[in-house]
Amino acid sequence: MRPATLAKTGAAALTTAVVGGLASRPAQSAWYASLRKPSFQPPRQAFPIVWPILYADIAAVSANAIDSLTEQGRRDEAKTFAGLLALNLVLNGSWSWLFFNQRKLGTSAIAAGALAASSADLTRRAVAVNGASAAPLGLYPLWCAFATALSTRIWMLNR
Predict the structure, then answer these.
(1) CA dist 6 → 32, 70, 148 (Å)
(2) Is residue 28 one of the residues assigned to a domain?
(3) Is residue 142 in a domain?
(4) Residue 141 is part of which domain span?
(5) Is 102 among the domain residues?
(6) Which residues span the membrane (predicted)?
(7) Alpha-carbon distance 95 to 101, whole Å?
(8) I want to staple 59 with a disulfide (CB 3.0 to 4.6 A). Which of 13, 29, 43, 103 is the partner?
(9) Model-level pTM greater than 0.90?
């Protein structure tokens, strides 16, 4: 992969992480503390461990897929992948704003589902281009599917 491509995907993932992190600050709020949460809610400390790993994975696997497609002369597919990555990262950052800032539990559960679907599609595309070397990106849709279940359950418990 080219360093320039990794710099772009890395900057996009880092921007998403910062936006999501800023939006998640109310996780310490009285409102969030008052929400009923399911028994499978991970400890708060899990999130700052999991997300940086996922963002690094997203950046590296995406850069590799984009460069592989470009090197194969499949420039339109590379542009499509980059556009779908951008959409995915917008969905990713939007979830935190919907949940923590807007307190829209149902909307955030739907957004989490859209993010899980988008993440699965990115993974499928990356694996189609680079095979097993892209497989670690599969952790991303798995985590997003878990987040969808968690968001949905929190919404159901707090209607």
Answers:
(1) 36, 14, 28
(2) no
(3) yes
(4) 3-16+44-157
(5) yes
(6) 78-98, 137-156
(7) 10
(8) 13
(9) yes
Q: Is residue 34 part of a domain?
A: no
Radius of gyration of the chain (CA): 16
Burial of residue 131 (CB within 10 Å: 0-12, 13-18, 19+) is exposed
Asked if 141 contacts 123 with a C-beta cutoff of 8 angstroms, the reply is: yes
Domain count, the chain: 1
Query: 139 phi and psi, to 5 degrees?
Result: -65, -30
Whether the CB-CB separation of 69 and 129 falls below 8 Å is answered with yes
pLDDT in tens, 74-127: 999 999 999 999 999 999 999 999 999 999 999 999 999 999 999 999 999 999
The Cα 55–Cα 60 span in angstroms is 9
Question: What value, to the nearest 5°, has the Cα angle with vertex 110 and ends 100 and 159?
Answer: 65
